[in-house]
């Protein structure tokens, strides 16, 4: 069964390009959103395996959409943007994005970004399960997410007093 992908991109030509590239590489595009609000709604309705979100979209930007999508159902997320500043990447990682693709992207970078997001998402789920088996007072779980570009983002997963799990950027690099 092919991986089901939701595309959220307000620029029609880029969205169509993504759809064609993904279809040629064996992915199934299950939905296309033109803004962040639509992306959140389609993620809820279609339950994709992975989502590609543009940062700058009308009504709700990609980072805010990522937070809302992950609050409802954790899935691997790839952020697509023309911007590559460290603070934006940091905000994206804190929101739960696992791969970052800079426009104009190359076709050969798209599939590795999706595969990276899926792999890092799986690692996070394993880390959460491991933390869930530990007593409340044990040390946080540390992991490093590596982007396709080689950028590394150290993450810390801790259990809050209410039992929920928090994911944040770690101070170590």
Walk me through this protein's architecture:
- It contains five helices and eight strands.
- By secondary structure, it is an alpha/beta fold.
- The protein is about 40% helix and about 25% strand.
- The protein has a single domain (about 5-135), classed as Rossmann fold, CATH 3.40.50.2300.
- The chain has a five-stranded parallel β-sheet, with helices on both faces. It has a three-stranded antiparallel β-sheet with strand order 6-7-8, with helices on one face.
Helix content: 40-55%
What is the CATH architecture term?
Answer: 3-Layer(aba) Sandwich
Any idea what the shape is?
globular
In terms of per-residue confidence, which ranges show pLDDT below 50 for 5 or more consecutive residues?
none
Count of distinct strands:
8
- What is the CATH homology-level superfamily? Response regulator
Q: In the residues, how many domains can be counted?
A: 1
Query: What Rg, in angstroms, do the CA atoms define?
Result: 16 Å
Distance, first to last CA: 38 Å
* Main sheet makeup: 5 strands, parallel
Lateral arrangement of strands in the main beta sheet? 2-1-3-4-5
Name the average pLDDT: 85
Question: What is the CATH fold-level name?
Answer: Rossmann fold
Tell me, what is the CATH class? Alpha Beta
The total of helices stands at 5
Strand content: 25-35%
Topology (elements, then pairings):
Elements: E1 4-8, H1 12-24, E2 28-33, H2 36-46, E3 50-54, H3 62-72, E4 77-81, H4 86-95, E5 99-102, H5 107-133, E6 141-146, E7 152-159, E8 165-169
Parallel strand pairs: 1-2, 1-3, 3-4, 4-5
Antiparallel strand pairs: 6-7, 7-8
Helix pairs in contact: 2-3
């Amino acid at each position: 069964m092919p991986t089901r992908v939701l595309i959220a991109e307000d620029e029609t030509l880029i969205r169509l390009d993504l759809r064609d590239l993904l279809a040629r590489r064996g992915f199934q595009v299950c939905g296309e959103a033109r803004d962040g609000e639509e992306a959140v709604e389609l993620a809820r309705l279609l339950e994709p395996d992975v989502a590609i979100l543009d940062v700058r979209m009308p009504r709700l930007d990609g980072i805010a959409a990522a937070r809302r999508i992950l609050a409802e159902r954790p899935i691997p997320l790839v952020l697509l943007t023309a911007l590559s500043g460290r603070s934006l990447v940091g905000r994206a990682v804190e929101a739960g994005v696992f791969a970052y693709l800079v426009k104009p992207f190359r076709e050969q970078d798209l599939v590795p970004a999706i595969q990276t997001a899926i792999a890092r998402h799986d690692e996070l789920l394993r880390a959460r399960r491991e933390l869930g088996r530990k007593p409340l007072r044990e040390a946080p779980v540390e992991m490093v997410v590596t982007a396709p570009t080689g950028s590394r983002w150290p993450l810390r997963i801790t259990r809050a007093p209410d039992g929920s799990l928090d994911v944040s950027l770690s101070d170590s690099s």
